Amino acid sequence: TKIPLDGIPFHPYYTVKDLVGVSVFLIVFSAIIFFAPEMGGYFLEANNFIPADPLKTPPHIAPVWYFTPYYSILRAVPPILNSQFPGVAAMGLSVVSFAFLPWLDRSPVKSIRYRGNLYKKWLAAFVVSFLILGYLGTEPSNVWGQFAPETLLVGGADRATVVARIFSLVYFSFFALMPWYTQKDQTKPVPERVTA
Question: What is the pLDDT of residues 19-53, one digit of tens each?
């Protein structure tokens, strides 16, 4: 196998880089474990430290931090026929959709370094929607109040729920439109030194 003309040997450069990365990770991980295991309630929730009372349910039960975007999608989908199944299906689809990425991506170039701006914009929109959905999943649905009942299309709905619906559409559009925008995007030419 050939290495690129401007490439560097794996050892010692990449092994030292990986050792530095592992060292930094272990330092941060140890600092969290020993000095801040609760992480402001995101790792160990405050409700876990309250004695159980079967007659009282906490007003807001937030999921673990890595499930919050999917929980927000679950809450954003309105129930149909008094059933929350559409929300559960949307949450399941939001998790499973990552498995279909190899077939959805139609770009001949796989490295983001040579991708066009259209893909980068969609990826940025996906990241922003994921972060906002994650924030909304940690908060109660009425955190920002409600729209006035006479408001067109969203009358009486929680503001956070409407925002979660908008960003859920952005989230799913990233996957649903990927075959189109990855095929139409203008990619930069991959240098021969990488492909030769």
Answer: 999 999 999 999 999 999 988 888 888 778 888 88
Q: Rounded distance, CA 75 to CA 161, Å?
A: 7
If we measure between CA atoms, which residue out of 156, 154, 137 comes closest to residue 146?
156
CA distance 145 to 161: 10
Specify the pTM. Answer: 0.82
Q: Which two tokens stand for residue 106?
A: 């139609």
**Residue 122, domain member (yes or no):** yes
Helices (H), the chain: 15-35, 68-76, 85-96, 101-104, 117-138, 159-176, 178-184, 192-195
Does residue 16 sit within a domain?
no
Is there a contact between 120 and 112 (Cβ–Cβ < 8 Å)?
Answer: yes
Q: Which residue has the tokens 């295991």?
A: 37
In a domain, 45, yes or no: no
Structural domains of the chain, count: 1
Nearest to 135 by CA among 72, 56, 50: 72
Amino acid sitting at position 188? K
150 lies in which domain range?
A: 61-195
